[in-house]
Amino acid sequence: MKTNYKKPDEWKVRAKKHLGQHFLKDLNIAQLIADGLSGHSGYKQVLEIGPGMGVLTQFLLPKTEFTTSVIEIDRESVAYLHAHFPLLSERIIEGDFLKFNPADHFSEPFAIIGNFPYNISSQIFFRALEIRDRIPEIVCMLQKEVAQRIASPPGNKDYGILSVFLQAFYDIDYLVTVPPGAFNPPPKVQSGVIRLRRNQVTHLDCDEKKFFTVVKTGFNQRRKTLRNALKPIGTFPEHPLLDKRAEQLSVSDFVELTKIAETLSNDPISS
Q: Where are the transmembrane segments (predicted)?
């Protein structure tokens, strides 16, 4: 399919601050994000979150190996998409991804892609984790600091709660840094593009709810050793991991501590 890619001739949709909108205008970056889709695990469906005026969408539609749908909460953007992408009309979902029920629209696994609004990017990932077995791949652009945090390995100062949660179920690559000038209006920060591919972990070897609690509690006082940081959970028996700080632990280390936490008689998360 031959397509003449272009920016909108006029910025007819006003960027809304409360929606965290910064419309991508750099076509090279749009192409890079679209090409980040690998078809990991053989999915055929793609959902773009927050397409705005379709600068990224126009690079997705020619990829005939996938069927692209979009979800957009901004009514003005929805109207623009209907007017400029008539072939996409039946696959334009007007709504909030955070309240999105995939069963209403997809009967099989689907990838997520998009230029995520900075103000809700973490919430998007937490929602994706809830339905992770339906999402084999995510390619997205978000604030650079958040992108780096998600992709950072243990031992890095950027490594944090979201890093552990996502790395438990996805393999993550940081692809490229994007300057503010690639957007209209330009944000005050740099952006980063990352790709997450679902790994082979179907379930953690511990109680998942307790795992989340242990990770959050450990990072709440990340300057302290875990022996002190995890006191709100209970009194742990001596263990080498307790001499480390949360940022030094891998996913498997946190699983090990969670299994110990499950045995504590004074563990408040067991009650």
A: none
DSSP 73: -
Ligand-binding annotation for 50, yes or no, is yes
CA-closest candidate to residue 237, choices 218, 216, 270, 259: 259
**Under CATH, to which class is 208-270 assigned?**
mainly alpha
Residue in 219, 217, 270 with CA at minimum distance from that of residue 248: 219
Domain ranges of the chain: 17-198, 208-270
Which tokens in the block code for residue 154? 């243990």
Residue 203 annotated as part of some ligand binding site = no
pTM of the shown model = 0.91
Joined together, the tokens standing for residue 270 give 């067991």
Which of 65, 31, 32, 27 has the alpha carbon at shortest distance from 46? 65
Each residue's pLDDT tens digit, 226-261: 999 999 999 999 999 999 999 999 999 999 999 999
Residue 48 among known ligand-binding residues? no
Is it the case that residue 152 has pLDDT exceeding 60? yes
Tell me if 226 is assigned to a ligand binding site.
no
Q: Is 262 annotated as a binding residue?
A: no
20 marked as binding residue: no
Superfamily of domain 17-198 in CATH is: Vaccinia Virus protein VP39 (3.40.50.150)
